[in-house]
């Protein structure tokens, strides 16, 4: 047996092969869609996954306003923000969040599934969410990703 055949290959910024994918969120459940997207932008679906390197792909999400939430979560699920001042805590329901900024629902769900560190913040920039059916990334020749 050759000892080199057992050598572990660790990916780095220069050896990572990044691809572009398009996901249509229309009618898909928010949590299941978000966890699948988080795996792809983190790079966990690749055989050369390295935990401390951004080795994931870029994902474009279309039709974010048409994502589905199970049961009555559209009215009961609340997102909390806090300004840091006394009395500065704000609550917004999922329905109002979709009306105000349709992309935020998917962005918040995926961001919560990424690591809470410098790498997680950098990986989050590989996600592009759009409310409609159009996106400005045609030059990257994205492939359709089905889950």
Describe this structure in a few short sentences.
The chain has 147 residues and is of the alpha/beta class. It is 26% helix and 17% strand. Helix 1 packs across helix 4.
Quick one: CATH class? Alpha Beta
Distance between the termini: 39 Å
CATH topology: Ribosomal Protein L13p, Chain: A
Share in helix: 25-40%
Number of helices: 5
- Describe the largest sheet: 4 strands, parallel
> What's the CATH superfamily, by name?
Ribosomal protein L13
Our Rg estimate from Cα atoms comes to 18 Å
Unreliably modeled segments: none
Strand content: 15-25%
What form results from the Cα inertia axes?
globular
Task: Please state the second-level CATH architecture.
Answer: Alpha-Beta Complex
* Overall pLDDT confidence: 94
Strand segment count: 6
Question: Mind sketching the topology for me?
Answer:
Elements (H helix, E strand, L loop, with lengths): L19 E5 L5 H13 L15 E5 L10 H4 L1 E5 L6 E5 H7 L3 H8 L6 H6 L3 E3 L13 E2 L3
Parallel strand pairs: 1-2, 1-6, 2-5
Antiparallel strand pairs: 3-4
Task: Give structural attributes.
single chain; 147 residues; alpha/beta; Ribosomal Protein L13p, Chain: A; 4-stranded parallel sheet; two-stranded antiparallel sheet
